[in-house]
Amino acid sequence: MEWESSDDRQGGSLCDPLDLTNSSEPPTTSNITEHEFSCHCCYDILVNPTTLTCGHNFCRHCLALWWESSRKNECPECREKWEGFPKVNILLRDATEKLFSDVIQQRRAAVQANPKVSRSLLAFQRYGDNLGRSRTNQHKGAGFFFSGVLSALTFVAVMVMVYHWSSGVVEQHDLLITKPVSHWTAEEVVSWLENLGPWAQLYSEAFQQENVNGRLLLMLGEEELLKLPYNIESHAHRRAVLAELDRVKVLGVKPPQNLWEYKAANAGKSLFLLYALKRSPRLTLFYLYLFDYAETFLPFLHTCCPAIAHLDHSVESSFLNSQLEPNWRQWVEFLVKYLLLPYQLIAEFAWDWLDVHYWTSRFIIVNAMLLSVLEGCTLWRLLTRARIRALPDKMWNHLWKMLSQGFAFALLWPFVPQFVCNCFFYWALYFSPIVNIDMVVQQLMHPETQAP
């Protein structure tokens, strides 16, 4: 097969591969050479040819390498700035692939095998996607206006709800969280007893008749509870009352028994835990293990990894079981989930509180699922892009960032007003899943454009 010399083809047009000769007869493959489809950067046949506004064509990876090194939106040959984001010339690409399929396949394989070129292409594509999103946001028109109005109304609604909750009448059991037990009235003692569970209502009448206040409550022991007038004959009920009474004596106030009581007693700490569990659940659980073992970590572990021997889920035994040291099976189950699926632990903990916090628990479960997907996408990108060696550096940077932010947060939260803490708390609790849904959609729809 004869190939035409390139010196005879200087007048040809690269944009119209079919008009390659001055003859009136249809062109044939014998009139076309690879040189006429060469890139002016690498001087090899075009791969994914990209046409600029000036008319010059380059391999897409050559253009990406040029853009990454120069950070200029201009043609490598004539230096004319391009407009928008360059796209692949589909007509030219199909023509080269049909005429020189073997050569194109070899070049494409070589390009894909080069990690530096792959990173440049990803960076170039991310730049184009960000440019497209910014232009889309500028031309959203009415949709953008109504989205802003909706966001403003949402913010106002959150502020109004928080103000209502902050300035409303505080319930009786919320007062007991901060009120010293020695100052409890007889009505507050009965309220504390009834909050232990439905079983405790059997003995509330006796406490009410004896007019037991906070000081008298602190003096009660097992012998007094067993005899009249209290007459708590059930061994499990008596142990539960004594165990909860011991907690009251140690803390000096009523211990929190649900999410809202915990938040009311520890506004800053609950906000810190809410954000920290989202950003770094492993470090947060380790923090609870070191500094809040009996009060928070043990109940969390027993809830997520219950012991086989403790299948009794009655209210009177829940506290007693949560204070026992975990066995080795519980530790193994916890460590496996802690290392591989930390957000599943949070979802299992929220699932156990469905009866108490119906909608809140569901928000937490959905958010945990979304965060698990985001973490999985991040690990998948590290593995597929051969960046696993960068994982120790990323872990160290993340550890340092979380420690510095956590230390700053611990210093500042005593000075943050309760109203501000409530605003951030409810936003992170109820609106973070909405934000994470958008992030998951972006990860799944455009995984190649996400930074590793």
UniProtKB/TrEMBL annotation:
Where is the segment annotated Disordered? 1-29
The reaction(s) annotated as catalysed by this protein in its Swiss-Prot or TrEMBL entry are: S-ubiquitinyl-[E2 ubiquitin-conjugating enzyme]-L-cysteine + [acceptor protein]-L-lysine = [E2 ubiquitin-conjugating enzyme]-L-cysteine + N(6)-ubiquitinyl-[acceptor protein]-L-lysine
Could you tell me the superkingdom of the organism this chain comes from? Answer: Eukaryota
Q: Which GO terms describe its biological process?
A: apoptotic process; proteasome-mediated ubiquitin-dependent protein catabolic process
Q: Where is the composition biased (Polar residues)?
A: 20-29
Q: What does this protein do?
A: Membrane-bound E3 ubiquitin ligase that plays a role in several processes including apoptosis regulation or reticulum endoplasmic stress. Has anti-apoptotic activity, both for apoptosis triggered via death-receptors and via mitochondrial factors. Contributes to the dynamic control of IRE1/ERN1 signaling during ER stress by inducing BAX inhibitor 1/TMBIM6 proteasomal degradation. Promotes the activation of TGF-beta signaling by mediating the 'Lys-63'-linked ubiquitination of TGFBR1 which is critical to activate the pathway.
Record text on subunit structure and interactions = Interacts with CASP8, BCL2 and BCL2L1 through SAM domain and also with HIP1, IFT57, ESRRBL1 and BCAP31. Interacts with NGFR; this interaction inhibits NF-kappa-B and JNK-related signaling pathways.
Q: How is this protein named in the record?
A: Bifunctional apoptosis regulator
Q: Origin organism of this chain? A: Solea senegalensis (Senegalese sole)
Ranked from the top, the taxonomy reads: Eukaryota, Metazoa, Chordata, Craniata, Vertebrata
